Amino acid sequence: MRILISNDDGIEAPGIALAAKAASLLTDDVWVVAPDGKRTAAGPSLTVARPITMRRLGERRFSCSGTPADCIVTSMGWLFNDGKKPDLVVGGVNDGRNVGEDLAYSGTLGIAREATFWGIPAIGFSRVKEANVREGDAAWLARFIERLWQTRSEWAMEGHWLSVNLPADLPAPIAQPTIGRDKIARKTEIVRENGDEIELIVPRGRAHSSRKGDENSLIAEGFATMNRLNWFGETQLGGAFMEGLRAATK
Predict the structure, then answer these.
(1) Among residues 99, 109, 117, 129, which one has the least CA distance to residue 13?
(2) Are 64 and 72 in contact (CB under 8 A)?
(3) For residue 82, which phi and psi values (nearest 5 degrees)?
(4) The pTM is what?
(5) Average pLDDT per run of 10 along the chain, which is 250 residues long?
(6) pLDDT tens, 46-81?
């Protein structure tokens, strides 16, 4: 079993070390390809028609100058181009939960999304900040990943991936939440003004809005939450609306 791990916190982040340690309990064929620095909220962004620098840090460990999704693209198009592709892609473990609108912003979930374009089962793991990290966390995470791998026929549909949020303490019971609303980047602050040039910053942080049964409420109760997501996500328009539109545009 070949597992590819990436993240959006950077190659040296503690979360990716946890993911790699868990994966190594399942297989000795673990590869890590991650950004050379923090790429929070990079989403599924790609670097196209501009150079990307890969740096070999170990036998199966590389840093990438691009985005989290670039790590998957370059892995598939270069690193594994002439060999066996990964059987599973793991994103994370992200430093902070990915809930609500984060499903669109998250670089961690952008990794999993990109993997599905290559037909590879993928899981994005995130964990609350200031978690109570313990020695047994990697073993528990390994058992979780192993079970998901064994049951992949039940969740790894084309274009779908899993988003998992881990609470402060592991082990944890697992629940499937509703997707809530807890948008980051709600404020813009002025840092400096110089004539027509204005320097702005969007500060970190979120309101931690919650409603019963959503990710935040279940995480607060100590659950690990899991959703199956997909990239296409269309909602069909009503027949009467479409007929009216056709008639109006003849």
Answers:
(1) 129
(2) no
(3) -110, 10
(4) 0.94
(5) 97 98 98 96 94 96 97 97 95 96 95 97 97 96 98 96 98 96 92 95 90 97 97 92 94
(6) 999 999 999 999 999 999 999 999 999 999 999 999
Token look-up 């992949």 returns 152
CA distance 112 to 108: 7
* Nearest C-alpha neighbor of 112 from the set 103, 122, 102: 122
The chain-wide mean pLDDT, for the chain, equals 96
